[in-house]
Write a structure and sequence with these properties.
mainly alpha; 4 helices; globular
């Protein structure tokens, strides 16, 4: 049986699609801090690598690097 991400992770994933780049960047950083709990966010974080805001892309990359390490 596949586990479902908890409410916090779902809320943060939703925030990755916010219109405000600061909200997107902060959500990516918050997901990184959640560690292994947030590995379900990897697909949504991957989408941010094409974001218009360089700071959002950078934070998404940091989060992805960390989450991929903890998932391995």
């Amino acid at each position: 049986m596949t586990r479902q991400p908890d409410r916090l992770i779902w809320k943060l994933i939703e925030k990755l699609h916010d219109a405000d780049p600061i909200v997107r960047r902060n959500a990516a950083g918050a997901l990184r801090l959640q560690g292994a709990r947030a590995t379900d966010a990897i697909p949504a974080l991957s989408e941010l690598l094409a974001d218009n805001d360089a700071r959002v892309r950078r934070e998404a990359e940091r989060a992805l690097d960390y989450l991929r390490d903890v998932a391995a």
